[in-house]
Amino acid sequence: MSFRGLSRPNATSGMGVADHTKDTFLQLQRKKVYRYVIFKIDEKKREVLVEKTGGPAEGYDDFTASLPENDCRYAVYDFDFVTSENCQKSKIFFIAWSPSSSRIRAKMLYATSKDRLRRELDGIHYEIQATDPTEMDLEVLKDRAR
């Protein structure tokens, strides 16, 4: 059995995370500059980049409308809610969006690069894997956050 090919990078490994990506996440997390950030893998640069940000006044519908219908993305969403004790809270969700209609190559690339990005984004409370909009409905976030 040969192990020669194991050390060579292939199409699904070695994805970097741009400094701008981490900085944008920190602005969402610490300064509340954004409500959400959508990340895209740039296959040519072999990096995860920021594709879109949503301002603090934007809602969950604005966020979900920003995700492509037929392609994968990563996203973080800062979810504000009020607890049963009437306390204002905020939880950051990491969403791995991989619609069933997206290309198999894209699904593989996003699946194998997810852990690297997650390690770079310190401070995420919950993670959701979604293949269709119902799996990341606002009610799903509410249930997880409580």
UniProtKB/TrEMBL annotation:
Q: Which UniProt keywords apply?
A: Actin-binding
Q: Which residues form the ADF-H domain?
A: 14-146
The family database entries (InterPro entries) matched by this protein are listed as: ADF-H (IPR002108), ADF-H/Gelsolin-like_dom_sf (IPR029006), ADF/Cofilin (IPR017904)
Q: Does the keyword Protein biosynthesis apply?
A: no
* SMART domains in UniProt: ADF
Annotated Gene Ontology MF terms? actin binding
- Cellular component aspect of the GO annotation: actin cytoskeleton
State the source organism's domain of life. Answer: Eukaryota
Q: Which GO terms describe its biological process?
A: actin filament depolymerization
Q: Which family does it belong to?
A: Belongs to the actin-binding proteins ADF family.
Supply the name of the protein. Actin-depolymerizing factor isoform X1
Lineage summary: Eukaryota, Viridiplantae, Streptophyta, Embryophyta, Tracheophyta
Supply the gene name.
Answer: LOC111283693
